[in-house]
Design brief:
By secondary structure, this protein is an alpha+beta fold. It contains five helices and eleven strands.
């Protein structure tokens, strides 16, 4: 269950240079989007997460705030229906429950997560070559809108995760992610809608504490 959650939390960062095609020449390229995203050293905003199970007709919704730190990782802080936090860092993943108890899993303890961490850090560092061998991307764009579907190459990752679809907008100097969808092989899916984005500033002391290794 914990590993399944990590698949969902990681998705906001993924990019690769594998297979891609620009829609009709009018929109940004994958390289342009990646470079523009990498300029956002710290990004904050709101999220709404909708999870859908293959064997259930209803979906579950949660919402809260997030912080993306290019040098560290991402913090998802759920406010509703219950308070919790999930963190994806380069060397570990972390969950925090409603009473503040934190649980860590180091990347070295799980080869699947290790590959996820690679994808996480590569996008915000604008290092597409680093993930070229790990995933294939089907990329398209039109106007200032872009979308990419990520297909994992690793057999262990692919056994659980079918694909991730990331969409957003890209201007002359800055790109934003507005939608992330993940599809698991068991039929479950999750969709993140991001809004209220702001850029700049630095991490607070509390935010930095999530990325510290005791």
């Amino acid at each position: 269950m914990v590993l399944r959650k990590f698949f969902l939390f990681a998705v906001i960062f993924f990019a690769a240079q594998g297979l891609w095609a620009q829609a009709d020449g009018t929109g940004p390229s994958l390289e342009q989007v990646s470079a523009a995203l990498a300029r956002n050293k710290v990004t904050r905003g709101l999220f709404v997460l909708e999870r859908t199970a293959a064997n259930k007709s209803r979906s579950l919704k949660s919402s809260g705030t997030f912080v993306i730190a290019a040098a560290c990782g991402i913090i998802w802080k759920t406010e509703k229906p219950i308070k919790a936090a999930q963190v994806m860092a380069k060397e570990f993943a972390l969950t925090e429950n409603s009473v503040g108890k934190r649980t860590r899993i180091r990347a070295s303890e799980n080869p699947v997560y290790l590959q996820m961490a690679l994808l996480t850090s590569a996008l915000w560092a604008n290092d597409l070559a680093a993930v070229q061998g790990a995933a294939d991307i089907d990329f398209s764009s039109e106007g200032d809108s872009w979308q990419m579907a990520l297909f994992p190459k690793d057999a262990a990752v692919g056994a659980a995760l079918e694909k991730i679809v990331v969409a957003g907008i890209c201007g002359e100097s800055q790109a934003s992610v507005t939608k992330i969808q993940s599809f698991l092989k068991n039929g479950n899916s999750a969709s993140y809608s991001l809004s209220g984005l702001s850029y700049g500033g630095s991490l607070t002391q509390e935010e930095r504490s999530y990325f510290e290794i005791p």
